[in-house]
Amino acid sequence: MKFMKTILSGIQPSGRPHIGNYFGMMKQMIDMQKEALVYALIVDYHALNSIQDAEKMREFTRDVVVDYLALGFDAEKNVLFKQSDVQEHTELAWIFDTITTMPYLMRGHAYKDAEAKGKEVSVGTFNYPMLMAADILLYSPDIIPVGQDQKQHVEFTRDTAEKFNRIYGETFKLPESLVIEDLQTVPGVDGRKMSKSYNNYISLFAEDSEIEEKVMGIVTDSSGERPENVYAIHRLLKSEEELKPIYEENIGSYKKLKEMLIEDLKAFIAPMREKRAAIAGDENRVREVLEKGAERAREVAAQKMQEVKKAIGVI
Ligand code: ADP
User: Which pLDDT tens digit goes with each residue over 108-123?
Assistant: First the structure.
């Protein structure tokens, strides 16, 4: 049998997926799904750190399933599932907590960012890299496609796997992260990282009116030659060569550049939005996909957990 790589990545059901999620991660998953086994996780227990509203949690979770299907995710061949459906994730996260120190987790940038803003950080946010390590290591994946913002957490996963292997013997395979280098982090309309948690994103399935409003609201810096936040989003849709003359011809006319970006975004989003509309509302399909995904994921996770339990001596 031909060797097939295993790819895994997660998305939080904490709002509508945006173009940063798509280009940073979802696109890679879709592109690789033919020649790899792809695990697409909906990390609802991670999202609990920001979504504490049952109806919203249900709605966003259903939405992510529909979004993946609309993007062409093959849920027959590959595995689309919810983290909360596989209890081994939280179980293994606990075991990782016991081999990880507080100073180590204090280096995590999600924790550092929250602290720098003077927020009271939840224990869940602090420990989040350990749950993420469990999400990944249960399935022995080769590659983790992520945006730049998650690269450090994949490093934490590798460190945790190494540490466990050192203490208890070879148990986990070390995964590699795949970050699209020239993409970096997609900026939101306010210039910060585009994120579901900030109200600064352009939804992947946005209506034309939302695209217009969001793009016109992009914060531009008048000191540079070109509006970097506009350019960074435009660059997702067109090559450097295509954009160079456009941006050179329109130095200083930010409105015109924004209008061109609006047209390109509309053309990119419209077909996906139509496809999504055709399957949205099919609750049975969503339920079936999640049930099947959970069943397949549980089988793999349970097997790995048996190995872990033997290694640590609880069985
Ligand atoms: P969010 O911050 O929007 O809630 P998630 O934590 O659900 O995003 O991340 C899902 C995936 O999308 C991760 O792989 C993450 O690295 C990627 N991602 C999130 N925001 C961006 C961005 N602005 N640019 C590139 N990739 C991103």
Answer: 988 998 889 898 899 9
Pocket residue to mutate for ligand 1, from 21, 151, 199, most atoms within 8 A of Cβ: 21
Please tell me the distance between residue 112's alpha carbon and the centre of ligand 1 in angstroms: 17
List % helix, strand, coil for the chain (3-state, nearest 5): 55, 10, 35
- Round to whole Å and give the CA distance between 59 and 168: 41
Q: Distance between CA 136 and CA 6 in Å, rounded?
A: 11
Distance 150 CA to ligand 1 centre (A): 8
Contact 85, 297 (CB under 8 A): yes
CA angle 178, 182, 187 (to 5 degrees): 100
- Model-level pTM greater than 0.90? yes
Q: Is there a contact between 34 and 65 (Cβ–Cβ < 8 Å)? A: no
CA 208 to ligand 1 center in whole angstroms? 23
62 contacts: CB under 8 Å, gap ≥ 6 = 283, 286
